[in-house]
Specification:
alpha+beta; ATPase-coupled intramembrane lipid transporter activity; EC 7.6.2.1; metal-binding
């Protein structure tokens, strides 16, 4: 796609910058103002050391009616869902959103009315209270005991919030620093933060213990990056605000932007002593970061609590519900509609029956002079109560038990346990397990989620020879090498691994000057900063790449010892040398290289340069070529003058510097090249490949730069392929504009959907788009800029003119939505979608678009605080626990330590959970239809009088004791195939995505199956009882005997349906015991409650005295029961056999050959495992220059950030610790 012309969007203000992190609809009008506008009217004002300033009337906002409070938030936070006062109302509201719970509440109210009550009111109240109570306790436990760390101990959200709010820091009060809790901090306070402390609020850096108020921060909690970043205070505050009394007298006024979620931007002005000083993000310490390599610093609280940027990026806590939950609600509505129709029909029947029969039979007179129509009305409500078991209240309790068990299985899965960090997998919710089996789209972060963010020096090429393979000291290639022993180098890093002994022998022998020059360049051409702390060297690199290269040079004997703004000292072959730095041509995204001009000890001037290359591209390594050239004194003097002019330019300084840099970086001599490996996490390629086979699409949403996202690690990760055609933002914009023009030209454009594909070869395309282009394509931010422009012009927008087909601007909201829908359709035609340089808000917006236009089940996975919004927006949120902090884990539904565990979570636990839940629900609906509809058939023979077909206690215990355990075990334990086969055949996952196992089709099958069973349960015994004589000469045709036979037939049938109808695959002794035990339990309880003894104690409650013993001593009735059960089961057996024989599913085929596959798996395990890393012959441009961030060149040249080199340097320790650092936020 490199040859494609870049299309510029019509109507856009500027072409999007691919290297800049944009912001979309979360951008406020205040953020779009210029700094001049900000000076005239700031939205946020803070006075140092003045808490009362924020309480002024002009800073008050209305909360409710006339109640007002300060717009400045306190510093306390809360992430938990409930507290003592809100738990009960919120939880009840959440539970009564379930239609079934509301349904049973209405039934309870009906049962209190004596005229229509056909069952005691407590038969509904007790189960309802039980259901609500169990669910409430589970929700409370979820909120109180949910893990917010991934360590061996668990902490509740309440306790974690309490711990954070009670952290201590020093605040300046009444002229002196006192220790206080974070909770008590207020906007305008001056605070002191010490080394390794978390930053309590968004703070303006005033001064620090380092020279020029330089302060290093770790932003893992904020953006997922482990590299340190530096911040710097204003020069005026650094010079005048070091001591406690100076800080106490500080009364500066800060005027800045309103609180927002922009992690990359801050605009403000400090007014102090009648002078104004501009402020930007480099002066800000953001909450969630940690102070590193700085003994202490002082700062002024600007934003506190919920106003901080990290809290603004958190998004709202959303109540997540599964598709099955939503479908169950609709099915409850359907059942209720059927129930109303049935009851209405029965009520009409009772009206006509009473009119024609009941009113004329003197023995049916009840003493109530009700009209037939009124009796029909009462009968309607009576049947509503009787037939309410069509939706059993125990269904929801059983569902919660199953989900809890499934969550425990995830927690106990040792194959998802990461032993290196003692981190188990954790299901942090118990309500979403079955949705894990229906995922269609995965949205993943890259850094720390797919990759380890660890760079390793693997190979190099010097003078045409490649080094890095396993070789002996004589240069002989070895089949199996061993790591080089660096014990000869006391500064070597013990973690550094290298197997080329020949390179080491060349360096130590000093025979090849090019090799020595190569590693000298690595030790000198960089912007790595080094500090000597108590005899230990600490490296601070602008990127992991630079850190890896300098570390490699150190191990090979070229050790960076010290540097100042104008000098670098290295240990070169056990001899210390100092080189004067004349100029540092720092990296930027246009030049994609960096250079250093040095004066050697002998007076020579030499330029060292390193930049991107493709020499090791086939090995999927990040590559740099290394070059140099000597410069004469005259040439350097001329160039230095040009450089000085460009560096002082007020306008377009960077462009002017680039021109000067290009002039000197000419006619370079190539020394060689380096190859660095950016390691993926273990198992990432295999995981992505298996998920792709399961038809799960993976999109990468990251803040990394575009060049980094075309990186070779994504090739290794199976996201990109060599034959893919890559489309970038400008190409996408052209395609969408053409589709928009086509729709405008079509007379029926608004009435018909254009279904033509965007690409001629779907599946062979990849989309790489930046956040700036994402805004441009989706029309984000333009509307606000236009509104701001109109606001400045003080005029209203004109009436929209007819659409111009040549304009790319949307004419209305419909066109904007169509544009968004077209983008989603185009992206879904691609095999890989990668969105880079996107903000946390944009990540969430992309997820929302796919959910909105594709109606798909989505999963987001990330490891940092910048992924929280995306995790909360998706249907399922997964947090990767590790080095990147706890924010992602705290907001996730599931957490584990490695991306590769995702395949087991979805393809094994998710699929099992979905299948189990679907089987459970289908069976539960079936057994209750079969149970309840017997009352319906019985009504035609009892005058529609609302009489039940069973005794009351059977109705009460049917769902609780007699039929719940077998299907509960299926919902907990059933496996169609084992975990190995689930992973081996990802296609088994497809039925869950399609919702094939539980939908309205399955619901109506269960309904008709229940109707058929209820017909058999009623009419076969009814026919057997007609004109029948028992062995004792008595007719067994009484109502109680009929109820016993019908109930016994029902219990045996529904329990035997578990292994037959549900096709139970994982059949164990436990399942067998549950089925037979439930039947035995029924007979045991029935004989007890039909006994004379219990009737004597409770004569009004147990009225079926002797019914069971009298009925079941008749062999004829046992034959009736056997016939009924056989007729009910035989059709199901036949249908199951036909389906598995003629139309077998993928699961049926796998089950049929299960033994064969299991033997193959066992044989495979005996074989030697393949290497962890497999290289493919691929060709891609190196991404080093893209991933490398702008370094510390300007900082070094300024001389502000580094202490002068000490005259006497103490002895260095044996080990040198490297702390990599990266770009400014």
């Amino acid at each position: 796609m490199s040859g494609l012309a870049r299309a510029s969007s019509q109507g856009s203000l500027d072409r999007p910058d691919d290297e800049v992190v944009p912001y979309s609809d979360d951008e406020t009008d205040d953020e779009l103002q210029s700094e001049d506008d900000l000076d005239r009217k700031a939205g946020w004002s803070v006075r140092a050391n003045d808490r009362e300033y924020c309480k002024r009337p002009e800073f008050q906002k209305k909360v409710f009616l006339c109640i007002k409070k300060s717009k400045y938030s306190g510093n306390g936070i809360k992430t938990y869902k409930y507290n003592f006062f809100t738990f009960l109302p919120l939880n009840l509201y959440e539970q009564f959103k379930r239609a079934a719970n509301l349904y049973f509440l209405c039934l309870l109210i009906l049962q209190i009315i004596p005229q229509i009550s056909t069952l005691p009111w407590y038969t509904t109240l007790v189960p309802l209270v039980l259901v609500l109570g169990i669910t409430a306790i589970k929700d409370l436990v979820d909120d109180l005991i949910a893990l917010v760390t991934v360590f061996s101990r668990s902490k509740a959200r309440h306790r974690m919030d309490k711990e954070i709010n009670n952290r201590k820091c020093d605040v300046l009060l009444n002229g002196r620093f006192v220790e206080t809790r974070w909770l008590n901090l207020q906007v305008g306070d001056v605070v002191r933060i010490k080394k390794n402390d978390f930053i309590p609020a968004d703070i303006l850096l005033l001064s620090s213990s380092n020279p020029n108020s330089l302060c290093y921060v770790e932003t893992a909690e904020l953006d997922g990056e482990t590299n340190l970043k530096f911040k710097m205070g204003q020069k005026v505050t650094d010079e005048r605000l070091q001591e406690e009394d100076q800080l106490a007298r500080f009364n500066g006024l800060i005027m800045c932007e309103e609180p927002n979620n922009r992690l990359d931007k801050f605009v403000g002005t400090m007014i102090w002593d009648a002078q104004s000083y501009s402020l930007d993000l480099d002066n800000m310490l953001l909450r969630g970061c940690k102070i590193r390599n700085t003994d202490f610093c002082h700062g002024l609280v600007i934003f506190a609590g919920n106003d901080t940027k990290i809290m603004r990026n958190g998004g709202k806590t959303r109540f997540k519900r599964t598709l099955i939950d939503k479908l169950m609600n609709y099915m409850v509505y359907t059942i209720f509609a059927l129930l109303v129709l049935l009851c209405a029909g029965l009520a009409i029947g009772h009206t006509y029956w009473y009119e024609s029969v009941g009113s004329k039979a003197w023995y049916l007179y009840d003493g109530l002079n009700y009209s037939s129509s009124y009796r029909g009305f009462l009968s309607f409500w009576g049947y509503i109560i009787i037939l309410n078991t069509m939706v059993p209240i125990s269904l929801y309790v059983s569902v919660e038990v199953i989900r809890l068990g499934q969550s425990k299985f995830i927690n106990w899965d040792l194959q998802m346990y990461y032993s290196e960090k003692d981190t188990p997998a954790k299901a942090r919710t118990t309500t979403l397990n079955e949705q894990l089996g229906q995922i269609q789209y995965i949205f993943s972060d890259k850094t720390g989620t797919l990759t380890q963010n660890i760079m390793a020096f693997k190979k190099c090429s010097i003078s045409g020879r490649t080094y890095g393979e396993s070789t002996s000291a004589d240069g002989v290639v070895l089949d199996r090498g061993k790591p080089v022993d660096f014990s000869w180098n006391k500064y070597a890093d013990n973690k550094f691994q290298f197997e080329d002994h020949y390179l080491i022998s060349c360096i130590r022998s000093k025979k090849d000057p090019q090799i020595l020059e190569f590693f000298k360049l690595l030790s000198l051409c960089h912007t790595v900063m080094v500090e000597n702390k108590e005899g230990e060297l600490v490296y601070q690199a602008a990127s992991p790449d630079e850190g890896a290269l300098v570390t490699a040079a150190r191990n090979f004997g070229f050790v960076l010892l010290a540097r100042t703004q104008d000098e670098i000292s290295i240990l070169e072959n056990e001899r210390e040398e100092s080189y004067k730095v004349l100029a540092t041509l720092d990296f930027n995204s246009d030049r994609k290289r960096m250079s250093t001009i040095l004066r050697f000890p002998d007076g020579r001037i030499r330029l060292y340069c390193k930049g991107a290359d493709t020499i090791f591209a086939n090995d999927t390594l990040r590559t740099l070529c290394l070059c140099y050239k000597d410069i004469s004194e005259e040439d350097f003097a001329v160039w230095e003058q040009k450089h000085q002019v460009a560096s002082c330019a007020v306008v377009n300084r960077e462009e002017a510097q680039d021109v000067v840099y290009e002039e000197i970086e000419q006619n370079l001599l190539l020394i060689g090249a380096t190859a660095i490996e950016d390691k993926l996490q273990d198992g990432v390629p295999e995981t992505i490949a298996k998920l792709a086979k399961a038809d799960i699409k993976i999109w990468v949403l990251t803040g990394d730069k575009k060049g980094q996202m075309s990186h070779l690690s994504l090739l290794d990760a199976e996201l990109l392929a060599d034959d893919m055609k890559i489309h970038y933002g400008e190409d996408v914009n052209v395609q969408l504009r053409n589709r928009q023009t086509q729709r405008r030209s079509d007379p029926q454009g608004r009435n018909c959907k254009l279904k033509d594909p965007f690409f001629p070869q779907p599946g062979k395309n990849a989309l790489i788009i930046t956040g700036g282009w994402l805004n441009e394509i989706l029309y984000e931010k333009k509307k606000k800029r236009r509104r701001l422009r109109l606001k400045k012009l003080r005029r209203r927008p004109n009436t929209p003119s007819p659409p111009d087909n040549s304009s790319s601007q949307p004419v209305d909201e419909w066109e904007k939505e169509k544009r968004q829908e077209d983008f989603v359709d185009m992206a879904c035609e691609c095999s890989a979608v990668i969105c880079c340089r996107v903000t946390p808000k944009q990540k969430a917006n992309v997820v929302s678009l796919v959910k909105k236009y594709k109606k798909a089940v989505t999963l987001s996975i990330g490891d940092g605080a910048n992924d929280v919004n995306m995790i909360k927006t998706a249907d399922i949120g997964v947090g990767i626990s590790g080095q990147e902090g706890m924010q992602a884990v705290m907001s996730s539904d599931y957490a584990f330590a490695q991306f590769c565990y995702l395949q087991r979570l979805l393809l094994v636990h998710g699929r099992w959970s979905y299948i189990r839940m679907c089987k459970f629900l289908r069976y539960f609906f079936y057994k209750n239809f079969a149970f309840t509809l017997v009352h319906f058939w019985f009504s035609f023979f009892n005058g529609f009088s609302s009489q039940t077909a069973y005794e009351d206690w059977f109705i009460t215990l049917y769902n609780v004791c007699y039929s719940s355990l077998p299907v509960l075990l299926v919902g907990l334990l059933d496996q169609d195939v084992n975990d190995k086969l689930s992973l081996r055949f990802p296609k088994l996952y497809l039925p869950g995505q399609q919702g094939a196992l539980f939908n309205y089709r399955n619901f109506f099958i269960s309904l008709f199956h229940g109707i058929f069973t209820s017909l058999m349960i009623f009419f076969i015994p009814y026919g057997a009882f007609l004109q029948t004589m028992g062995q004792d000469g008595e007719a067994p045709s009484d109502y109680q005997s009929f109820a016993v036979v019908a109930a016994s037939s029902l219990i045996i049938t529904v329990n035997l349906q578990v292994p037959i109808s549900l096709n139970t695959s994982y059949w164990t002794f436990v399942n067998c015991f549950a089925v037979l035990g439930s039947i035995a339990l029924y007979f045991g309880i029935m004989f007890d409650i039909h006994s004379a003894g219990i009737h004597v104690i409770f004569p009004n409650t147990f009225t079926f005295t002797g019914a069971a013993s009298n009925a079941l001593r008749q062999p004829y009735l046992w034959l009736t029961i056997i016939l009924t059960v056989g007729v009910c089961l035989l059709p199901v057996i036949c249908i199951q056999f036909l389906y598995q024989t003629i139309w077998p599913s993928v699961g049926d085929k796998v089950q049929r050959n299960r033994k064969k596959y299991e033997l193959e798996d066992d044989e495979e395990e005996r074989k030697k495992k393949k290497p962890a890393f497999q290289r493919g012959s691929r060709s891609r441009r190196s991404a080093y220059a893209f991933s490398h961030s702008r370094g510390y060149g300007d900082l070094i040249a300024s001389g502000r950030s580094i202490r002068q080199r000490p005259r006497a340097r103490p002895e260095l320790r044996e080990s040198i610790r490297e702390i990599p650092q990266a770009e400014n936020i």
